[in-house]
Structure formats: structure tokens, C-alpha cells
User: Fold this.
Amino acid sequence: MKHHLTRPRFTRRLKIVFSLGLLGFAAVMNAADTHAFKPGELWLDAGGKPINAHGGGMLYHQGTYYWYGEHKEGPTTTPACNKSWGGTRTEMVGFHCYSSTNLFQWKDEGLVLRAVTNDAQPDLHPSGVLERPKVVFNARTKKFVMWMHIDSADYSAARAGVAVAEQPTGPFTYLNSVRPEGQMSRDQTLFQDEDGTAYRIYSSENNQTTYISQLSDDYLTHSGKFVKAFAGRSMEAQAICKRDGKYYLIASGCSGWAPNAARSAVADNIMGPWTELGNPCEGKDAQTTFAGQSTYLLPVAGKPGAIIFMADIWKGDDIASSRYLWLPVRFEDDKPRIRWEKSWNLSVFDH
Ligand code: DGJ
Assistant:
């Protein structure tokens, strides 16, 4: 039987079809939207909660990225011992881990190392400082090894802590802390080379010099082989990557939670000599690293040479509301270059 629609019914159907079309379009746009990095904007995990992984590092293991970072919550205070330099803090909670296969959507894997109030492990007491976790997988021992910055509230302890896990999502068992090479150790990162050798790169000598120490074969101790790099250059927030056989470092200066101009450097050998290449950031706000501070240089799996600059936008007066700044690193004339992008995705590496 033929249906002849009356004019109002026809208009209603047309409206429904149009609305459904709009909804579909919005859904597609929304999906595309979740696949864009938006530096400085609130970044929610797959459960809709803000990602809480500051000063972070990344492990890529068997097709999955694991993002480890400082869990920051609660009020920001300035302890009496830090009044002279305005060193604000939040109570230590632990390190948070998230997992992802696409770098945009992150599943909450929970706290993988927690602060503890018992006397057995004073390094992890909530009154202390726990920062900049970095994790590597040791293919020989099949263990996930995490190094971190352990400190007292006034940052005078300046130690390197190590923990180990059977799974990337932990839980990590805390082992101990050291003053490597008999020196202070604060901001730190790890770098695992293609031959499996791992290195720890850290601010030492009261943050004046960056040390690069080769780790033992099991990654649990310092091997004793180390160099002092960038003497007197006062760097923090070191991050290292390798590209076309060269090692690149991006770091910050030292100004507490306040942003400063980033530095970059290149070397043919990770143990040096290193050649400084200046501020890798360009354009407006390059002098303050777009309000951020480096934390990791992330190679994108499946895209040779593609590196993401991972940084934190710290809020020194409300540390728990700090955010993230991820930007693509472009290599031009063998120098890393970072420019502000309001919104971007991995296709920037395709051209
Ligand atoms: C700068 C460091 O890079 C951060 O990780 C943190 O330790 C702050 N200083 C504390 O003021």
C-alpha cells in the first residue's frame, strides 16, 4: 500500500532524519576530538577522572604504553623549612599508572607504589618527597625496574630510590635508596639503549651538574661507570631520546615550580661529549617552555623518528591541579624544535 504523508508528518520525519544526522556527525567529531592532544587542557582518563601522573615517564611494553607519574592530591602547603625559597608541597601519596594503546585514551591502573606511614620504610613516608618515576623492563631478569627521586620535605636528602615489579602495572616493591657516586641525586630520568644498557641521568652536586650513570646489568644499582656532564649549567627535568644514532637531551633550568627556558643538547655517545643546542622551543612563550617543564621524550611506536615532548604545567600554589603539555618534536638541521600547537594528533609525524 502506498503511503502518502501529510505535510506536518513529512516535516516531522525530515526533522528526525536531520537530527539523527547531526547526532551522528557530532559523534564522529567527538571521537576525532578525543584523538587530539590539547596541551594544558584538562585530560580525563577512560573513567572520566583527571589523569593524575605528574613528572611522568613512559614504558612501551608489548604493544601498550604505561604512563607512570606522581599522584598529587590534597592541599598545597609551604613547610616552615621551605619558607625562604617558597618550596610548596603536597603530602606524598604515591605513583599512579595508566595504560593505553593509542596515547589518547588512558585506562586507570591505580597506584603502583604507595606512601607508607610505618617506620619500616622512611623513604616513603607521606611527609617526604617522591618524584619523577621512570620505568624500564629488564629482558634478562624479566623485572620492571622503577627509579625515582626520594627526598625529605626540604629537599636536603637528595637520593635515588629503586623499586621492582613482576608486571608493568605493579605493584612495585620498594628496595632502597642511594646517593649514587657518593653524590646528591634529585630530578632524574632513565634511558634504555638499543643494546639493553640502561642509564640514569640526574641533577647532582646541588643541581649544578648533570650526572649520567650506567646502571648494572640488572638495573638495580649504579655500575660505577659515570660522567659529569653540563658542569655548572644547573639543569633539572632531564629527558633523553635517541634518533638516527644520536642522543638528544632536553632539560629545564632550576626555578622551582615556575617555568623557565628549556635547553637542548646532542651527543654521539650518551657518555658525552655533549654539545648544547640552545632552547628547542620557538614562538610565543618559548622562553617559559609554553608554561611547562620537560619530563620525558617519548618515541612513538611504529613511527621511526617521531618523538613527543612530554612536559608538566605545574601549579605551584595548587599542585594537585597541575596539568600536562605534550607537543611534537621536529628535528630540523639535526636540532630538536618544539612549537606550540593548540590541538594536534599523530598525523603531524607523517609529513
Ligand atoms: C623542580 C623539579 O623539576 C620538580 O620535579 C620539583 O622537584 C620542583 N622543583 C619542586 O620545587
Helices lie at 7-34. The longest helix spans residues 7-34. The chain has a mean pLDDT of 93.
